[in-house]
Design brief:
alpha+beta, Helix Hairpins, Glucose Permease (Domain IIA), 14 strands
Length: 444
């Protein structure tokens, strides 16, 4: 159970509390944070929550759940941000590869078109040369090799013979040139055809690369969109969970305020009981002193008056109220969710619900019933001990056995439970001096 007011002596611990709070809040990371592994982030958050267990042991389940859900979501954000960055980088790379593939394909197609045009020109030239050669062949066949002799016999004079012979040589040169051109053009046609085949193969390869690059770019775009959607979803969840956490924080503060008010009532009630018991003790002591004085005046000797024994310097007046193990001691705690110091005003004994609870010392049951945030509660006054009014409280019980009136040490008070502001089966045991909570170890 927690009390709201921190003692001034723990003010120096605020810095340590702030450090713990900042450590727990460190699950929220910016988009520019270094690469983070999701599993490591989750483990880190769970470790921090486990370390803060003592500070959260009396916190409502709703607040703890909201806090854990928010921390878990926050731990996923860095990995989601890294996934978006990686996906967008892959998308940019795939788009660049796609653009390069499209450019390569355009060049390949242009080269192929030029080769096709070249091949068409070569074929046209070859056809013309073949036609010329065919004409020469036809003429040669018709002349049947007598062309030169006819030129000589038909010449009227030597000059005409020389002219006709020169003309015949020119014709032969033209024929020979046409044949040479025919051979060259045929070879060029073969080479251009081979080149065109190679270019077509390159174009097909470029087409396949373009299709692959386009598919990769499409997949990368889809992956980037999915990663962005996941991040947006986490951000949206974080906003909703933050709102839920704030709602639970407010509810928790109200519950703690109610508990503090209940604790204040107990303090006032026990202080009044202690004051009355002290008054009675002093009255009894005064009466005893007066009786002793009268006895002495009547010659009855010099006996010392009866007084309370001096307070001892060690504990041991109280017995352990439960067989459970100690899950939390008395002391100041920094609440990592509500961000303030508060007093854990007793000692917690963890045990299964239904485990017996016993009176720590003889006394008088001054309260037995519902105690608000304390759940089912019994308060026992043990009278004036060591100069103070000592009382013990037994809280969160599943069932109360002890009723009002005297009770012996070790008598059954009730059974361990989890009623009131409690997160699990345990006994919250408080020791109060004049109504004020003190460390039970001082008296046990």
């Amino acid at each position: 159970m927690r009390m709201r007011r921190p003692h001034r002596a723990v003010a120096r611990g605020l810095a340590a509390g702030a450090l713990l709070a900042s450590t727990l809040a460190g699950a929220t990371l910016s988009a520019g944070s270094a690469a983070a592994d999701l599993n490591d982030d989750k483990a880190s958050v769970q470790k921090k929550l486990a370390a803060a267990k003592d500070d959260l042991d009396d916190t409502s389940k709703e607040l703890r759940s909201a806090y854990a859900a928010l921390a878990d979501t926050q731990s996923k954000v860095p990995a989601a941000q890294n996934a978006v960055a990686a996906a967008q980088a892959a998308q940019a790379e795939a788009e660049a590869a796609n653009q390069q593939a499209l450019a390569d394909l355009a060049v390949a197609k242009a080269d192929e078109q030029r080769a096709i045009s070249q091949l068409a020109d070569t074929r046209s030239d070859l056809a013309d040369t073949r036609s010329t050669v065919a004409g020469f062949a036809s003429q040669l066949y018709q002349e049947q090799g007598t062309g030169t002799l006819s030129v000589a016999l038909e010449a009227a004079d030597p000059q005409q013979l020389a002219d006709r012979m020169a003309m015949a040589d020119t014709v032969m040169d033209i024929q020979n040139g046409a044949l040479t051109r025919l051979s060259t053009q045929s070879a060029s046609l073969t080479a251009t055809s081979d080149h065109l085949a190679a270019l077509r193969a390159r174009t097909q390869q470029a087409q396949r690369r373009t299709e692959q690059a386009q598919a990769a770019a499409t997949a990368a775009t889809q992956a980037a969109a999915a990663a962005k959607a996941e991040l947006d979803s986490l951000v949206s969840q974080q906003a909703a969970l933050t709102s839920s956490l704030e709602t639970q924080r407010s509810a928790e503060k109200n519950r703690i305020a109610d508990l503090n008010a209940e604790s204040d009532k107990i303090t006032k009630k026990l202080a009044a009981i202690a004051a009355e018991e002290e008054r009675k003790r002093k009255a009894a002591a005064a009466a005893a002193a007066a009786g002793a004085a009268e006895h002495n005046n009547n010659g009855g000797g010099s006996a010392n008056p009866t007084t309370n024994p001096p307070p001892t310097s060690s504990g041991g007046f109280l017995s352990a109220p439960s067989s459970g193990w100690i899950s939390s001691e008395f002391g100041m705690r920094y609440h990592p969710i509500l961000h303030y110091w508060r007093l854990h005003a007793g000692r917690d004994y963890a045990a299964a619900c239904g485990t017996p609870i016993y009176a720590a010392a003889p006394g008088t049951v001054v309260s037995s019933g519902w105690g608000g945030g304390y759940g089912n509660q019994v308060i026992i006054s043990h009278g004036i001990q060591r100069g103070v009014g000592l009382a013990t409280t037994y809280n969160h019980m599943s069932r109360i056995v002890a009723g009002y009136g005297s009770i012996a040490r070790g008598a059954l008070v009730g059974y361990v439970g989890t009623t009131g502001l409690s997160t699990g089966c345990h006994l919250h045991f408080e020791t109060r001096e004049n109504g004020v909570p003190v460390d039970p170890r001082k008296w046990l």
